[in-house]
Design a protein that fits this description.
Number of strands of chain A: 57
Structural class of chain A: mainly beta
Distance between the termini of chain B: 94 Å
Strand content of chain B: under 5%
Order of helices and strands of chain B: HHHEHHEEHHHEHEHHHEHHHHHH
Structural class of chain B: mainly alpha
Radius of gyration of chain A: 31 Å
Number of helices of chain A: 11
Oligomer: heterodimer
Largest interface: A-B, 99 and 94 residues
Shape of chain A: globular
């Protein structure tokens, strides 16, 4: 298809959400001139369906109107006027008014990909071509193709500039989403999530014991109800959303019905099974120490440094032999069933969906389930007022085990178990735990005696009322709430192995966030200019309360009730945060090739210092569609865009201004209440932080859009970062404080390439590539402080965020060779050293889709280059003799220099001594996060239409999808380097340890659409 | 249209005035900004007994690991782990963080709060107690780290980088704090102290006796300090003790209730997950001397039924149940934590009298101290006599060794033993195999948390350096 001629293109574009500005009020009063006549007409598409909401206006005039639900319009125009018909997604048309008064106007859809309509800030739909900043859309279909149960995991690898990191393979486990790099040292770094205009909570919750991850609350949303996701990456795109949007925005648009359409029933049924991708461990040597066999029953030890299995077998001593990981993990199963119906009458449309998800995990006993109901009803109350009510309700439940570096985590013992000891039964005849080593529980005992049951009931109602008093003016009122109640119960039985008393923790959390936007938008064309103005107000109020009771000292087995505790203690925390914002935006489009956009916002927040809690910010951006001016046959589209923004942010928790007394640990104690002053010093001077971002982008399409790319370069400066928990010298009396302290930069390149190598009647091959490269640098911490602990990693002046800073090899200062001690073993440094960094060099993804007649085949490859990860399982394993590398037990000579003499080391050491020494050396467990994953591979078949004939079905399709069929991880010995085992928090990143492994799964999906 | 304008204008006006108020919700509903004295005293005391003196962790207010370190140095406890650990003096600076958090944040900052609040309210008993406890915490800290932040410390944001004071000056301050405490209690002003005082239940005369006993303890710490003489320090100690403790009833101790959330510090420290057991050095000493306290203070190996300690620094990992652990006198779930028992006063009297007058003068205090301690532990009187006989009489040549050796056994897990060892060289310790320092540590290194945020010249100190009072 040819590029439409400039003259035919409309100057006026999206006017779905016109808006007000006082300025325009005067213009409305200019009287009409010359001879006029009233005409009527109907706008229809190629199939004859009415096109509602299309703009019909007179060229070189202000006169115009919009078509109604049936595509009809009426308008008074000059004689011989030229009508311009435009709408989102259609080719603009010009019709010269002649003698007749009635016009049937047929319109064609606009050339694919140039007319892509995307949802931008505040839910405003705009054509992608006129945007002045970078966004990327992911369709609902692409999300479901990933076969992930959670929205975030479904996005992984698909969007440039975005990094999503899973925490664990446990059902419902959380994931972290960071857009354009970390922007805060210790504050929230995760993207803002907006559902149909309402910010929704995506905290990691539901893990009262605190070990391991929890669930990211976004997983309450059923991915099947999502029409599309738009990722607003830069601050210019998101500035209208206010402070939190400085971290990027994930805009979720849900499905809806359509005016004048018959009920469409869709049934989707999925089953998948998941097998854990287990790390390879050594299984050649038995439990024992220094080659001496310990049977685990009469002789116990934690060491798996015994004799070889073969030698035991040859003397008939081998009574049991099984890989402890294979024995422990099992196959998980997921069933998902969704049914939905959508349609509409001439004045209303509706969409309802119900889905049920049931998942059993790869760790026996673990499970996750979700029932979600979604309904959306839109009604045209009058010709000027349209109202939409939508409700999202979900009830999710899970049964999980603790993970991470905690004695309650069975995996800690599983990953360091010998293959020569049978862990079952887990109880002996006296009801005591059977263990091969002391100081740890039997992992199978853990499964049945330490767990969390969680229930979350979530309700997200949104009401949108759109009032169009004039064809160029739209007033939108949108109110919504995100509320949930969560009740996690943690149960831990008393352990005979650890001599613990057991406990029950029962939490009850109430979260509610109310959000209201009142927006007025005016749009109008003036000759070659197309102008829109928008003003609005946002009010947001967040309330969250957690009541927690702990019963310590359990006497009744598996009674998961607080009354089971011998001593009951509790706490209650309540947080209230309020924000208010006023915003405005002005867009000017000139001759359809130059777009300018200005935004401004003035925010107030409850969390900052009095007199510092209101602050302004804004953005300016421009897009230049050069292909409109310079015509080159091979170039179908070309746009250059630049933007600059400065966004204020209040990224700090409430109550950070004062230093209160807090209930002391272990209190109440012996009948006394006890409070101690908070170890975190309040700061009454906190003001907003600022993200300044400059961005340039180039978007091009070639060869009739068969090849296209989009590339952006951004430079973000994060200044005066609000940093909660900045360590201060303990000798000040306090341990930390909150400061407007740190400075950080993110510079990056994002690229997206779309290629359609083959496009014919029966066969199409589409390919999408994305690439992200971000360079982060911490440019200031505070004062002269050179480093700051984030958790598992550190921030270092002049280094990227997330440096590993732990004892490493002591090295010779000139030759950098390892220094060994007199016994020939490497020496670990006494002080921390920089031994790695978690930032990847780049991320990339390739998606291929082939359509051949009724068959579709797709595969999605995902690549991460670099980014270090601490393999904590190996670090502990070196001590115990369980990692695969410890299978080589030859005596060895460590290559290095002898301390003092600086001679080459020649001393022979035992492998056990060597590896146990490495246990103190974190550098020896630093591994590469590089991976290449075949994240999904699928094959689908759609029954031919003639087969369905006159039956009730319009389409029936069957898809088989394999996930993680292949993971190449050259520098990593664990299951999957793409995890942060301890959850989504800043402090948890970069560590792999004691976690449920990633799964390889097969999914079968049956999709049926009824006529 | 006009309606819209009017409505918008009205809303804008409303918004302008209401905004400030709307966002004014930042008052913390969870935690108070002021408290009474008794609310502070109870957790301060629990943390002194549990954290500072025992090295345990009370809730989430920081661990006083430093006390545990002294028990590794004194070769009392031992990890059932391969060589590189605290037992072989393998430390990194971050290992000191929790202790400073406990000492400066949990203790000293809150003691300062307590002093300020009680002074303002005129509750002198609380002021006095806080000053005595502050003296104890400051002395504990300087004994392990030498020069520490003191006069410029605890000023919050107004001094983020407090310089360190000389230990010599801090010792003057410790004595002065104790004198202030005694004087404040003497005022008998304001609120009576009650059940929030776990140590003495508000019995103020006993607090005064404790203050004098602490004065004696700290005078004795300076027996070889530059510019001080042992005899003069002993004389000062004896003078102080004229007002010091006189009976076991004066013991400074903490009785653990032993409930699910009130287990004794040593019970929790020795739980199996720590992989700690008794060191062969202490077990062998008690076994070799036929010390009748052995079954009370050391357990038998669960597997073998024998008294077997683990040798620190040995390479292999055995079975934890093959080794002895700490006995019920210290580590029962409801044990008593003795911070400064009367028996310590008796041993100080023995040492001070030996210094001032001679071995014969020390003998009765020495005998009384051992007898008192053994009786308290539950040893039969016949066994006491047998043991005393086997240890012989104090002579000019053996008095210091015997007094300190017995003092160490009597208070087997007290951090005070490490001060005595550095002062006197007793009990004799041998450096462990696989030691990571050139000698047995004579002090602790500064914590990473201070290194990062408050660089000071003193921070180059190494484990083998000596604090000021630890003169050669």
């Amino acid at each position: 298809m040819n590029q439409p001629k400039q003259s035919n293109r409309c100057r006026q574009v999206v006017r779905r959400w016109p808006l007000l500005l006082v300025l325009l009020l005067c213009l409305a009063a200019i009287p009409a001139a010359a001879q006029t006549k009233k005409i009527t007409g109907k706008v229809t598409d190629e199939a004859g369906n009415p096109v509602s909401g299309a703009t019909v206006r007179e060229k070189d005039s202000r006169r115009g109107t919009a078509t109604d639900a049936a595509g009809n319009f009426s308008l008074t125009v000059k004689n011989n006027a030229v009508l311009i018909v435009t709408s989102v997604g259609i080719e603009p048309r010009e019709i010269t008014v002649g003698e007749t008064d009635n016009y049937d106007i047929k319109v064609k859809p606009r050339d694919n990909s140039l007319n892509e309509v995307v949802v931008t800030a505040l839910g405003i739909k705009r054509e992608k071509r006129e945007l002045t900043y970078s966004t990327q859309q992911v369709t609902g279909a692409a999300l479901s193709a990933s076969k992930e149960t959670g929205v975030l995991n479904a996005l992984t690898g698909k969007v440039s500039g975005v990094q999503i990191t899973a925490s664990s393979g446990q059902p419902g486990a959380s994931s972290r989403i960071v857009i354009r790099g970390n922007s805060s040292l210790l504050g929230n770094n995760e993207a803002l999530i907006i559902l149909d205009g309402i910010p929704i909570n995506n905290d990691q919750t539901g893990n009262p014991s605190g070990s391991g991850s929890g669930t990211s609350r976004l997983s309450d949303i059923d991915p099947n109800t999502i029409e599309s996701i738009n990722v607003l990456k830069g601050s210019a795109a998101s500035a209208l959303y206010g402070s939190a949007a400085a971290r990027g925005v994930v805009l979720i648009t849900t499905k809806g019905g359509a005016i004048n359409s018959k009920p469409k029933v869709m049934v989707n049924s999925q089953y998948s099974f998941e097998n854990p991708i287990l790390p390879k461990m050594q299984t050649r040597y038995a439990l024992g120490d220094r080659g001496v066999y310990f049977d685990g029953d009469t002789k116990k030890t934690s060491a798996v440094w015994g004799p070889s299995i073969d030698s035991l077998r040859s003397v008939g001593l081998l009574s049991y032999y099984k890989d402890p990981l294979k024995a422990f993990f099992t196959t998980g199963h997921t069933w998902t069933n969704t049914v939905s119906v959508g349609g509409g009458t001439d004045r209303s449309s509706y969409f309802f969906s119900y889905s049920n998800l049931n998942q059993t995990g790869t760790v026996p006993t673990t499970k996750y389930g979700r029932n979600a109901i979604f309904g959306k009803f839109t009604n045209k109350i009058t010709d000027q007022v349209t109202a939409t009510l939508q409700l999202n309700y979900s009830l999710s439940s899970s049964h999980t085990i603790p993970e991470g570096y905690d004695l309650t985590d069975p995996l800690w013992t599983v990953y360091t178990s010998p293959s020569t000891w049978n862990p079952l039964p887990y109880l002996d005849a006296n009801g005591n735990q059977r263990v091969f080593r002391l100081s740890r529980n039997n992992p199978y005992w853990d499964l049945h005696n330490i767990y969390t049951n969680n229930k979350n009931s979530r309700f997200i109602p949104v009401v949108t009322v759109v009032y169009k008093p004039l064809n160029w003016l739209t007033i939108t009122e949108r109110g919504g709430a995100d509320t949930y109640t969560e009740q996690p119960d943690y149960y831990e039985a008393p352990s005979t192995a650890l001599v613990t008393t057991g406990r029950v923790i029962q939490n009850s959390s109430n979260f509610r966030q109310l959000n209201n936007d009142l927006i007025a938008e005016a749009r109008h064309g003036f000759g070659d200019f197309d102008v829109s103005f928008l003003v609005g107000n946002n009010i947001q109020s967040t309330y969250s309360q957690t009541q927690s009771t702990t019963g310590t000292g359990i006497s009744i087995a598996n009674l998961d009730n607080i009354s089971n505790g011998a001593v009951i203690t509790g706490y209650d925390t309540l947080y209230r945060v309020r924000k208010i914002g006023f915003y405005g935006q002005a867009n000017v489009s000139y001759k359809n090739f130059l777009n300018l956009s200005l935004t401004g916002r003035y925010d107030g927040t409850s969390v900052l210092a009095d007199k510092k809690n209101f602050y302004p910010y804004g953005s300016a951006s421009a897009g230049f569609i050069f292909s409109e001016l310079i015509k080159v046959p091979a170039i179908s589209f070309g746009k250059l865009r630049v933007s600059y923004s400065s966004v204020g942010n209040d990224n700090v928790g409430p109550y950070s201004l004062t230093t209160p007394y807090q209930s002391a640990g272990a209190f109440p104690y012996g009948g006394n209440a006890g409070f101690l002053i908070s170890q975190s010093l309040g700061n009454p001077y906190l003001r907003n932080e600022i993200t300044k971002e400059a961005e340039v982008g180039l978007e091009m399409q070639f060869l009739h859009n068969r090849v296209g790319f989009e590339v952006s370069y951004f430079n973000r400066n994060h200044d005066n970062l609000l940093t909660q928990g900045v360590p201060i010298a303990p000798s000040t009396g306090f341990n930390s404080t909150t400061l407007n302290a740190a400075f950080m930069t993110n510079k990056g390149i994002e690229a997206l390439v779309n290629i359609t190598p083959v496009k014919s009647r029966n066969f199409t091959w589409d390919m999408t590539l994305n690439y992200t490269r971000i360079r982060n640098k911490v440019t200031k911490i505070f004062g002269n402080t050179p480093q700051l602990q984030i958790g598992q990693t550190w921030a270092f002046l002049g280094k990227p965020y997330g440096v590993f800073y732990s004892p490493g090899y002591l090295r010779d200062s000139s030759t950098h060779e390892i220094i060994v001690d007199a016994s020939g073993l490497p020496i670990s440094t006494q002080n921390n050293e920089i031994i790695g960094n978690l930032q990847p060099d780049f991320l990339a993804g390739v998606n291929n889709n082939f359509t051949f007649k009724n068959w579709t085949v797709g595969f999605f490859l995902d690549y991460r280059k670099g980014g270090d990860i601490l393999n904590s399982d190996d670090r502990y394993g070196y001590f115990y003799g369980t990692p695969l590398v410890t299978q080589n037990r030859q005596d060895l000579v460590v290559k290095g220099l002898v301390q003092g003499t600086k001679q080459q080391n020649t001393k022979v050491v035992h492998a056990e001594d060597y590896f146990q020494r490495l246990n103190t050396n974190y550098e020896a467990a630093m591994q590469s996060g590089t991976y290449l994953k075949l994240r999904t591979a699928s094959i689908g078949y759609k029954l031919p239409a003639q087969m369905l004939g006159k039956g009730p079905f319009s389409t029936v399709s069957l898809t088989l999808t394999g996930r993680n069929l292949f993971i190449y991880k050259p520098g990593f010995t664990g299951s999957d380097p793409e995890v942060s085992s301890y959850g989504t928090g800043n402090g948890s990143q970069g560590v792999y340890g004691n976690t449920v492994p990633t799964s390889r799964s097969f999914n079968l999906t049956l999709n049926v659409n009824f006529k | 249209m006009k309606k819209i304008i009017a409505y918008t204008a009205f809303l804008a006006a409303l918004a302008g005035t209401g905004c400030k108020k709307f966002v004014d919700v930042n008052k913390n509903p969870n935690s108070p900004l002021t408290v009474q004295e008794k609310i502070l005293l109870a957790p301060i005391e629990l943390n002194i007994a549990h954290g500072v003196d025992a090295g345990g962790s009370a809730g989430n207010d920081g661990e006083g690991e430093a006390a545990s370190f002294t028990n590794h140095f004194m070769q009392t406890i031992c990890y059932n782990q391969v060589a590189l650990n605290y037992g072989t003096y393998y430390f990194v600076s971050t290992d000191m963080n929790l202790s400073w958090q406990q000492l400066y944040n949990t203790e000293l900052e809150n003691l300062q709060q307590l002093i300020q609040i009680s002074e303002k309210n005129g509750n002198a008993n609380y002021t006095g107690i806080a000053q005595i406890l502050k003296a104890y915490v400051v002395a504990f800290t300087t004994d392990l780290w030498g020069d520490i932040p003191y006069s410029k410390a605890l000023n919050g944001a107004s001094n983020l980088t407090p310089t360190y004071d000389k230990q010599e000056d801090i010792y003057d301050s410790v004595q002065a704090l104790l004198d202030l405490g005694i004087a404040n209690i003497g005022k008998s002003q304001g609120l009576k102290v009650g059940a929030d005082d776990y140590f003495y239940g508000g019995k103020m005369p006993q607090w005064v006796k404790l203050a004098y006993s602490l004065k004696a303890r700290y005078y004795m710490h300076l027996t070889k300090a530059p510019g001080h003489t042992a005899v003069a320090q002993a004389q000062l100690a004896l003078t102080a003790l004229q007002n010091g403790m006189t009976a076991n009833g004066d013991d400074w101790k903490f009785d653990y209730p032993g409930g699910a959330t009130s287990q004794s510090a040593w019970y929790t420290i020795m739980l199996p997950y720590s992989t700690l057991c008794a060191s062969s050095a202490i077990v062998d000493t008690l076994v070799n001397r036929n010390d009748p306290r052995l079954p009370f203070v050391i357990t038998k190996s669960k597997n073998t039924g024998l008294y077997t300690g683990r040798a620190i620094g040995t390479p292999s990992i055995g079975n934890l149940d093959d080794y002895s652990s700490i006995g019920d006198y210290y580590a029962a779930i409801d044990a008593t934590q003795y911070i400064l028992p009367y028996t310590e006063v008796q041993f100080i009297q023995a040492e001070a009298n030996w210094l001032v007058t001679g071995a014969a003068a020390a003998q009765p205090f020495y005998t009384a101290a051992i007898t008192n301690n053994m009786t308290k532990i539950g040893v039969a009187s016949g066994d006491i006599a047998t043991y005393l006989a086997s240890r012989g009489t104090l002579t000019a040549g053996n008095a210091l060794q015997r007094i300190i050796e017995e003092k160490r056994i009597a208070h087997m897990l007290s951090p005070e033993n490490y001060n005595d060892w550095r002062r006197t060289g007793w009990p004799a310790l041998t450096i462990v195999p696989n030691a990571q320092t050139a000698g047995i540590p004579r002090r602790l290194i500064y914590p990473q948390s201070e290194l990062n945020t408050n660089p000071q010249p003193q921070q180059s100190a190494q484990f083998t350096d000596r604090v000021w009072w630890d003169g050669q």
